[in-house]
Every structure is written in C-alpha cells, then in structure tokens.
Model the fold of this input.
Amino acid sequence: MTQPFDDGADRVERVEHRWAAVSVVIVVLLVVIATFAGLYQAAMPQARVETVDPRTLHLGGEFIESNLGSALEPDGSVTVRGIGQQYSFTPACMLVPTDTPVRFRATSADVVHGFLITGTNINLMLVPGYVSSLNARFETPGERLMPCHEFCGMGHEGMWGRIKVVDKAAFARLAADRRRLSCVE
Ligand code: CUA
Done:
C-alpha cells in the first residue's frame, strides 16, 4: 500500500540533503580559493596594528611633512612615507627604484582613503589613527597611477596620485644629495 504523504516527505528530505551538500561544497571551495590566493597570489594581510594621532601628524613624528617621501635606508631598502587627505596625497608623486625592497608607510589626516597602485596588487586603506604598511618590489621603470578608491567626500573622484619607478642607479644618484625624495615638480 502506498502512502502519498510519506513519499512527498521523503522527496523533500532528499532535496534538502542535496542542497545542504551543495552549500557545504561552496563553502569549502571558497576556503580553497582564499587559501590559494593568500599563498600563491601574494594577497597580503596587514602585518600588525600601529596607531598614530591624526590630529598631530603635521606637528612632529614620522609623518611630519619634511619626513614624507622616499628614504634610502642604510640596508639599501627604501621606505616611502605618505599621507592621504581630502583630496590629495602627499607627496602627490612618489618615487621608487626598481629591483629594491620598498616599504610603504602611510596614514590619513582626516577620513578613510584608498591607496592603490594600478597594475600591481598594492591596495591599502588609509584609516585615520592607523599606520598602513606594505612591502613591495618594482621590476620595471615607468609611471603608475594611484587613484583613491574609498569614497572620501565630494572631491573623491579628483583624488589621484602618481608613482614613478626609476632605475635603481638613478635613484641612488638622486638620494645622494637629498634626504627625502619625491617626483613632485
Ligand atoms: Cu580620498 Cu577618495
């Protein structure tokens, strides 16, 4: 003797099990993709949290204006310090050498801005109160754009910076007689 109601319940249960399995597969797939991106495509999470007072950036410390730009370190690496503010970056054009470890250190003087270098995987948020830091390396000379990619107010679309990659030797020559470098004319 057939029981039509039980048949229906069985079918519903089978369909539910199938969809439960599909959703578990989707979650596992996303974890695999995130792990792959992290390991092989160098997605780089923030290494640690460093804070800075956005109200006193211009008065002293690491992000005072005279300390912004590119600094050649004793070990041959380069540190680039910058600030984002409504609606520009300082320096507006950052100078870096090829074939050299480069560390970006940047923060915001007001609201959240984006720090992205086109054609690379360099992509940071500049959050007031925090230092954003990232290691990078540039292989070929050239100029790249740095559009702010976090909505930061009415002038957001006009907030662009540039980054100029120059030959390592040319950078060393420029660094010989200047403490901080940029390509702002
Ligand atoms: Cu700064 Cu958008």
Summary: The first strand starts at residue 69 and ends at 72. DSSP finds two helices and ten strands in the chain. The pocket of dinuclear copper ion is lined by residues 84, 87, 113, 148, 150-152, 156, 159 (CB under 6 Å).
